């Protein structure tokens, strides 16, 4: 039987053999993985570790923070600030960017994260996760400013997530396909369990929060309505629905067996482009999905081509199996 391949070995091979990543990026990804292990331990302890419940504070987007939102954010910062691989970090849970303190060496990468995705699922013991995205600091600019982070998703040099579910699984791309690693708790390391992840181009499964139906725009209504008509409708097949309310878990299912995920713009707050955050959620997930042969748009354009205007910008998201994403996107231009 072939020997298990650890994340460390996988990354060394990406660096040395295939030349896909520089040494500093390898270090960065190892450190992020180590932080995810610590978060996974905290998640696992649950009530025994006193990590459940709210923290009596709000983040910059006005959302009530859970204790684990804050713990995960701190773990990621502490793990990443001293290694010399980063220039700065940005997080869904912090108002502004976090500069690497002067006492540590400065690197050339920018790390962005949603430290704890699926916060509403923490206390009910349903899968949650961490999502991350890595950019390169633009060359020639001294220091780091928020402006340096405002790069389109197509500029990412690495992206991934870690899902804390029945298993803890780290999913990663450095632009050479998608690989999945399962946490071996006895060994304390992530082990490669799937390479070249591919999303089937067709699917019979959609994920959307149906309770928002009355607020949707016509193209989304049309798409879901056609799915709901099943065999008797224009699609000629029955569809299944899933909604976990943790984007990590929904995207993980799609990377595993296909499907389409949508959190579209809706009429509740017409000036808000959507619920999900471009830099911490949509960009890393869209790149992973594209790297696995899927597609990701905001209904009008490829998410990875959107030029961000603000760090905490929100965006409408349609991602997953290619043919379904293309169909929903085409409804946006014909209606
Ligand atoms: P977060 O916990 O980081 O704020 O993200 C939650 C997001 C996303 O993970 C999920 O798909 C969506 O919010 C769920 O929203 P609803 O509760 O509106 O269904
Ligand atoms: Mn999130
Ligand atoms: Mn979050």
TrEMBL record:
Main location: cytoplasm
Top-level taxon in the UniProt lineage: Bacteria
Keywords, comma-separated and alphabetical: Carbohydrate metabolism, Cytoplasm, Hydrolase, Magnesium, Metal-binding
Catalytic activity: beta-D-fructose 1,6-bisphosphate + H2O = beta-D-fructose 6-phosphate + phosphate
UniProt binding sites for Mg(2+) 1: 92, 114, 116
Claim: Magnesium is one of the keywords in the record: yes
Cofactor: Mg(2+)
Sequence positions that bind substrate: 117-120, 209, 275
Protein name per UniProt: Fructose-1,6-bisphosphatase class 1
A single cellular component GO annotation: cytosol
Naturally occurring in which organism (per UniProt): Acidovorax temperans
């Amino acid at each position: 039987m072939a020997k298990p391949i650890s994340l460390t070995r996988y990354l060394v091979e990406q660096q040395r053999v295939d030349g896909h990543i520089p040494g500093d990026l390898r270090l960065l990804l190892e450190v992020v993985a180590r932080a995810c292990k610590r978060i996974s331990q905290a998640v696992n302890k649950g009530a025994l570790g006193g990590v459940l419940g709210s923290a009596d504070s709000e983040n910059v987007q006005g959302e009530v923070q859970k204790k684990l939102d804050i713990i995960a954010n701190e773990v990621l910062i502490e793990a990443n600030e001293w290694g010399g691989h980063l220039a700065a970090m940005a997080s869904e849970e912090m108002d502004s960017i976090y500069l690497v303190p002067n006492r540590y060496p400065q690197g050339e990468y920018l790390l962005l994260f949603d430290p704890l995705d699926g916060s509403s699922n923490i206390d009910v013991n349903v899968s949650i996760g961490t999502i991350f995205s890595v950019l390169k600091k633009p060359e020639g600019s001294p220091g780091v400013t928020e402006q340096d982070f405002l790069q389109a998703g197509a500029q990412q040099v690495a992206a991934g997530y870690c899902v804390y579910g029945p298993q803890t699984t780290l999913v990663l791309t450095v632009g050479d396909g998608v690989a999945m690693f399962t946490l071996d708790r006895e060994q304390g390391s992530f082990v490669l369990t799937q390479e070249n992840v591919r999303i089937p181009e067709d699917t019979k499964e959609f994920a959307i929060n149906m309770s928002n139906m009355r607020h949707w725009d016509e193209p989304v209504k049309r798409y879901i309505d056609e799915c709901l008509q099943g065999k008797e409708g224009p699609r000629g097949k029955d569809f299944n629905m899933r909604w976990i309310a943790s984007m990590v878990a929904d995207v993980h299912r799609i990377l595993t067996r296909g499907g389409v995920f949508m959190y579209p713009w809706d009429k509740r707050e017409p000036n808000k482009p959507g619920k999900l955050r471009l830099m911490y959620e949509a960009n890393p997930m869209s790149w992973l999905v594209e790297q696995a042969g899927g597609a990701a748009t905001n209904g009008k354009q490829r998410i990875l081509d959107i030029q961000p205007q603000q760090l905490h910008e929100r965006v409408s998201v349609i991602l997953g199996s290619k043919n379904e994403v293309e169909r929903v996107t085409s409804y946006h231009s014909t209606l």
